C-alpha cells in the first residue's frame, strides 16, 4: 500500500479504538485523541521531591542548557553591578560555545562537517552560547528556511526542515523513518519528561490535578502532568522556571545515559559474539563488491558529482583502501571514515586484473558507489548465532532511537513558543529586558511571547513548505 492508503487505514482503526476507549474505559476523547488519566503517580512524585536533594540544581542546569547566557544572566546577573553583569554574560557565552565545540569534536563533528551547516557552524556555536538549545533550534530553523527560499527562487525544491516522524510510516521527502519499536522509545521519553515536571512541581508546592498518557487512536503520542494553571500564574517565576526546565533536562540526561549504554553495548555485543563464536564475525565475509556507480548524487535539490563515476564499475571487488585490506563492509566503512574528506586510493579486482584508482569524496563526503558484501559461502552459521545477532541488533537499535528521540524532544521543548516548555520560560527570561516605566512585567512578557510566536510560526511554515509544494 502507498502512503495515502496506509494513512487511511490508520485513521479508520484509530477512530474505532478511540470509540472503544470512550465507551468502555470512560476516557476523555477529542476526535481520535484520548486522554487516559490517573492520580496514582502523584505519590511517587511527592516521595522523590522530598528525598532527592539536587533537583533544583538539576533544573537550573536544564535552564542554562536551554537558554544559554541569558538564563545565567537571569539567575545570577540581574542583581550584579552593570560591569560585572556584562563580564558574567561574556564569560558564560564563551563557556557554552566551548561546550558545543567539545561535544561536536567528541561525536565526530556531526555539526561542523555537516553540509547543510558548513561555514555557518560558528554562528550556530554563537547562538548556542547566547540562547542554549533555544538558540540552536532557532538558528537551525532560520538556516534551513533561508536554504529553502533560495532554492525556490531558482526553481528547486529543497528538503523540509520540519516533518512528523511517525514510527513505521514512511513520509514522502523525509529521509528518516523510525521503526515501529521506536514507539516504545517515544513513550519512555514522554513519561520521563512529564514525570520530572511532576516531581519539580510537587517540590515547589504546586498541586498536580492528574497525570496520564495521550493516545492518537491506539498509539501513544504523549504524556502529561496537569498542574493547577491558576496556581502557576500566581506563583513566583523562581518556582515556575525549575518546574518548566525539568522536563527537557530529564530528556537530555536520558539521552546521555542512552548514548553511554549504546556505546558500551556495541562493544559488549561484539565481545560476546566473539567469545561464544570465535572468528565467526571476521569470517562472515570474503570481501566487498561494487554494486553500482551513480553519475551524481542529489540531496535537497542540490546535485553533486560522483567521484567514482568513470573510475569504478559494477562488479569491481574492492581489495584495499589506502593499502589496508578490505575483508568486509566494516573494514570498508572504517577505511572510508579514516581522515574523512581526504583523497583515497582503491585497489580493485576487475575481472581478475588489478586496477588502482584514486579519488576524493564530494562535498557530501560520498564517493558515489554502492556496495554489497560478499558472503563467505563455505561458512556454516550456527542457529544460536542468528538468535543472538537478531536480539543484539534490535536492542541496540531501540537504544539508538531512545538516544536520538530524546535529543529531538528536548530541543523542541526548549523552543520559546507556546505550547512548548520554552514558550513560558522564554517570556520570563527575556521579558525582564523590556520592562519600562510605561510597560509592566506582564506586558513585557506578553510582548516577548507574541514576538517569538510570530517568528517561529513563520520559520516552521517555511520549513514545512517542501512537504507540500
Rg from Cα: 26 Å
What general outline do the C-alpha atoms trace?
A: globular
- Counting structural domains, the number is 2
Number of helices: 13
User: What composes the largest sheet?
Assistant: 6 strands, antiparallel
Return the string of H and E elements. HEEHHHHHEEHHHEEEEEHEEEHHH
Oligomer: single chain
Approximately what portion of the residues adopt beta-strand conformation? 15-25%
How many beta-strand segments?
12
Helix percent band: 55-70%
Low-confidence stretches: none
Report the mean per-residue pLDDT as an integer: 88
Which secondary-structure class do the elements indicate? alpha+beta
How far the N terminus sits from the C terminus, by CA atoms, comes to 23 Å
What features would you describe in this structure?
This protein is an alpha+beta fold and 469 residues long. It folds into 2 domains: 303 residues, no CATH class; 94 residues, Roll (Pdz3 Domain). Helices cover 57% and strands 15% of the residues. It is built from 13 helices and 12 strands. Strands 5, 8, 9, 10, 11 and 12 form a 6-stranded antiparallel sheet that branches. The protein has a 4-stranded antiparallel sheet with strand order 1-2-3-4. A hairpin with a 2-residue loop joins strand 10 and strand 11. Helix 6 runs antiparallel to helix 8 and helix 8 crosses helix 12. The longest helix has 40 residues. It is globular. The two termini are 23 Å apart. The model has no long low-confidence stretch (mean pLDDT 88).
Amino acid at each position: 500500500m502507498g502512503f495515502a492508503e496506509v494513512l487511511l487505514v490508520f485513521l479508520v482503526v484509530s477512530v474505532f479504538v478511540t470509540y472503544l476507549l470512550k465507551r468502555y474505559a470512560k476516557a476523555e476523547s477529542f476526535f481520535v485523541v484520548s486522554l487516559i488519566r490517573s492520580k496514582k503517580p502523584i505519590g511517587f512524585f511527592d516521595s522523590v521531591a522530598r528525598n532527592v536533594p539536587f533537583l533544583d540544581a538539576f533544573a537550573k542546569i536544564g535552564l542554562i542548557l536551554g537558554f544559554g547566557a541569558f538564563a545565567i544572566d537571569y539567575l545570577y546577573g540581574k542583581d550584579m553591578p552593570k560591569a560585572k553583569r556584562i563580564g558574567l554574560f561574556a564569560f558564560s557565552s564563551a563557556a557554552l560555545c566551548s561546550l558545543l565545540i567539545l561535544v561536536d569534536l567528541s561525536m565526530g563533528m556531526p555539526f561542523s562537517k555537516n553540509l547543510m551547516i558548513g561555514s555557518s557552524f560558528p554562528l550556530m556555536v554563537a547562538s548556542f552560547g547566547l540562547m542554549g538549545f533555544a538558540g540552536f533550534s532557532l538558528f537551525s530553523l532560520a538556516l534551513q528556511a533561508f536554504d529553502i527560499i533560495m532554492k525556490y527562487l531558482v526553481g528547486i525544491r529543497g528538503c523540509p526542515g520540519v516533518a512528523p516522524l511517525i514510527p513505521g510510516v514512511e513520509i514522502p521527502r523525509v529521509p528518516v523513518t523510525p521503526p515501529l519499536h521506536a514507539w516504545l522509545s517515544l513513550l519512555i521519553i514522554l513519561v520521563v519528561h512529564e514525570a520530572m515536571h511532576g516531581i519539580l512541581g510537587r517540590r515547589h508546592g504546586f498541586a498536580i490535578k492528574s497525570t496520564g498518557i495521550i493516545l492518537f487512536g491506539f498509539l501513544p503520542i504523549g504524556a502529561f502532568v496537569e498542574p493547577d494553571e491558576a496556581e502557576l500564574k500566581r506563583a513566583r517565576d523562581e518556582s515556575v522556571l525549575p518546574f518548566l526546565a525539568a522536563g527537557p533536562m530529564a530528556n537530555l540526561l536520558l539521552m546521555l545515559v542512552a548514548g553511554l549504554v549504546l556505546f558500551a553495548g556495541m562493544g559488549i555485543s561484539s565481545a560476546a559474539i566473539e567469545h561464544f563464536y570465535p572468528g565467526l564475525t571476521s569470517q562472515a565475509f570474503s570481501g566487498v563488491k561494487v554494486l553500482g556507480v551513480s553519475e551524481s548524487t542529489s540531496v535537497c535539490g542540490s546535485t553533486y558529482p560522483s567521484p567514482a563515476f568513470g573510475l569504478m564499475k559494477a562488479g569491481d571487488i574492492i581489495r584495499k583502501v589506502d593499502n589496508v585490506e578490505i575483508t568486509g563492509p566494516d573494514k570498508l566503512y572504517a577505511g572510508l571514515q579514516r581522515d574523512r574528506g581526504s583523497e583515497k586510493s582503491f585497489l580493485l579486482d576487475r575481472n581478475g586484473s588489478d586496477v588502482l584508482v584514486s579519488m576524493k569524496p564530494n562535498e557530501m563526503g560520498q564517493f558515489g558507489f554502492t556496495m554489497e558484501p560478499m558472503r563467505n559461502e563455505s561458512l556454516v552459521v550456527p542457529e544460536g548465532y542468528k538468535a543472538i545477532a537478531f536480539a543484539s541488533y534490535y536492542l541496540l537499535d531501540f537504544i539508538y532511537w531512545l538516544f536520538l528521540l530524546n535529543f529531538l524532544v528536548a530541543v523542541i521543548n526548549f523552543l520559546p513558543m507556546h505550547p512548548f516548555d520554552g514558550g513560558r520560560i522564554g517570556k520570563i527570561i527575556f521579558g525582564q529586558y523590556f520592562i519600562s516605566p510605561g510597560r509592566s512585567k506582564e506586558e513585557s512578557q506578553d510582548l516577548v511571547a507574541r514576538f517569538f510566536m510570530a517568528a517561529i510560526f513563520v520559520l516552521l511554515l517555511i520549513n514545512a513548505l517542501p512537504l507540500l509544494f
